[in-house]
Amino acid sequence: MSIVSIASFPSSRPVDPDRPDAALDRMLRRAVLTGLALVLLVPLARASTDALGWLPLWLVGMPAVAWWALHRFRLPAAARRLRPAVRRRSPQARRLRARHAGVVRAA
User: Fold this and answer.
1) Residue 25 and residue 16: Cα distance in Å, rounded?
2) In this prediction, what percent of the chain has a pLDDT beyond 70?
3) CA 21, 26, 27, 29 torsion: positive or negative?
4) By residue range, what is the domain housing residue 41?
5) Domain total for the chain?
6) Which of 21, 61, 68, 85 has the fewest Cβ atoms surrounding its Cβ within 10 A?
7) 3-state secondary structure labels for all residues of 21-54
8) Cβ proximity of 63 and 31 under 8 Å
9) Which residues contact 70 (CB under 8 A, 6 or more apart)?
10) What are the tens digits of pLDDT across the range 74-100?
C-alpha cells in the first residue's frame, strides 16, 4: 500500500511567494467596490457618525489600504514608469562621509 501525498501532484500553476492570496484579494476588491458604490449611491454613506466617524473612510479608504497592503504597497505600473530610475545621492551625504573619513578616533 503506497501513501500518496498532495505534494507529489504537480500544481496547475507555479507557486509565487510574491503573489497575494487570491481569495483575500478577491474579497478586498469586492469590499472596495461595494464601499465605493455605497458612498456614490447612498447619501447616508457619506455621513459621519459618533461611533465610527467619517463613513467613507471605513467603506472605501480602509479596504483600499488593506488591498494595497496585500500587494505589499506596490505602486501601479503607470506610477512606476513616471518615477525616475536613477538613485541620486545628496551632497550632504558626501560631505558627511568625507568629514568622517579624515577624523581618526583615539581608542
Assistant:
1) 15
2) 56
3) positive
4) 20-73
5) 1
6) 85
7) CHHHHHHHHHHHHHHHHHHHHCHHHHCEECCCEE
8) yes
9) 20, 21, 24, 25, 28
10) 766 766 677 666 666 666 666 666 666
Rounded Cα distance between 101 and 96, Å, is: 9
| Residue 68 burial (C-beta neighbours within 10 Å; 0-12, 13-18, 19+) | middle
Residue 34 lies in a domain: yes
pLDDT value for 19 = 81
The residue assigned the cell 472605501 is: 60
Q: Give the whole-angstrom CA distance, residue 100 versus residue 59.
A: 52
Report the alpha-carbon distance of residue 87 to residue 70 in Å, rounded: 27
Contact yes or no for 4/32 (Cβ under 8 A) = no
* 31: in domain: yes
